[in-house]
Amino acid sequence: MLLAATLVLIAGCAATDPDNVVPGVLPAPQPAPDADAVALLLEAAADAFEHDRLITPPGDNAHDRLLAVLALDPDNPQATERLERIVERYLEFASRAAEQGHFARARSMLDRARIVQRDHPEIQPLEQRVILLAEAKRVRIELDRSAVAARDASASARLRNIGARAKMPNTRVTIVARSDAEGRWMYQQMREAPGERRIRAELTIGSPPSVELIELPCGDATC
User: Fold this and answer.
1) What are the residue ranges spanned by the domains of the chain?
2) By the 8 A CB rule, do 133 and 98 touch?
3) Residue 67, C-beta contacts closer than 8 angstroms, at least 6 positions apart
4) pTM of the prediction?
5) Which residues, 6 or more positions from 85, have their beta carbon under 8 angstroms from its beta carbon?
6) Residues in the chain with pLDDT values less than 50
């Protein structure tokens, strides 16, 4: 009787021992992800993304829902691709903030991008650009509104003078104009200044008409 009980115990251990797998017998398949749950999470993530609820507020953001999808379905390509889009959105926010001189916000957006994907290859280059822009010398030159509106020769001459400075190496320009047409005219006058270098300019709609010169503290082409 004791021998029989011992044999049963040994047989039970062998059946549960992973080292005693019978050749030719495959392990039980893993259950398929809950397709309905995955679909609902992806839909909720898309809605959160469209409203820029990217990693906040807690419990109601695209990032949390996409991580929940990957917990159910680790190889889900839609979740992976949408996490990448969250990083890209934060990089877009950071770049825009830096160009506008809002450097604390730019750094905050980069920190959020790292939360989603720490090793994303575009984060560090953009961080270096934010540092350069933060250290740049900025000169804002306001123009006479009436002279610009009339496309006056005095306004044209002043813009050409500004254009000569804008064509210096490592210099960027932000043009503030009251309309697209006015901004294009201002840019064209600046382009006619002496020098072959192309002026790198960004147009912002606003008033009064003005030009901001951003002189970056570096000497390579990435500036």
Assistant:
1) 36-134, 136-215
2) yes
3) 79
4) 0.68
5) 49
6) 1-18, 21, 219-222
Residues 6+ apart with CB under 8 A from 45: 62, 65, 66, 69, 79, 82
Tokens of 95: 């770049």
Peptide bond preceding 57 in cis form (omega within 30 of 0): yes
Sign of the Cα pseudo-torsion (191, 176, 51, 49, in order)? positive
Taking the C-alpha atoms of residue 79 and residue 41, their distance in angstroms, rounded to an integer, is 10
Q: Report the alpha-carbon distance of residue 175 to residue 171 in Å, rounded.
A: 13
- Which CATH number does 36-134 carry? 1.25.40
pLDDT at position 56: 95
Q: At what angle do helices 77-99 and 103-116 cross, to 10 degrees?
A: 170
Residue 216 has what pLDDT?
Answer: 87
Q: What φ, ψ does residue 91 adopt, rounded to 5°?
A: -65, -40
Roughly what angle, to the nearest 10 degrees, separates helices 35-50 and 62-72? 160
